[in-house]
Design the sequence.
């Protein structure tokens, strides 16, 4: 799900359980590499993990508000609180450890 400044609170912060937020851009090579990994993790979670994506080119104000300087940046939320944040490409195993 693509999220923006207008729906970030409802789609991410007010959600129960685990939400992965992927700050990305369409032109970013590492972003393209990590996207299928994130989708695989979410699909394998059987509905326990939600994936939200923020396009930094389309919603730069939201990205700047979180201090996003490099992409991909991944936030892991649990019950509305950020529990982990990583920058750059990560393997599936590395992401699963963050969750």
Sequence:
């Amino acid at each position: 799900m693509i999220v923006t400044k207008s729906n970030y609170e409802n789609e991410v912060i007010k959600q129960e359980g685990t939400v992965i937020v992927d700050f990305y851009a369409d032109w970013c090579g590492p972003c393209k590499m990590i996207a299928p990994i994130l989708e695989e993790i979410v699909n394998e979670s059987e509905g326990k993990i939600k994936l939200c994506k923020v396009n930094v080119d389309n919603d730069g104000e939201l990205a700047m508000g979180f201090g996003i300087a490099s992409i991909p940046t991944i936030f892991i939320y649990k019950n509305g609180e950020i529990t982990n944040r990583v920058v750059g490409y990560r393997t599936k195993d590395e992401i699963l450890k963050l969750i």
The radius of gyration is 12 Å. The mean pLDDT is 96.
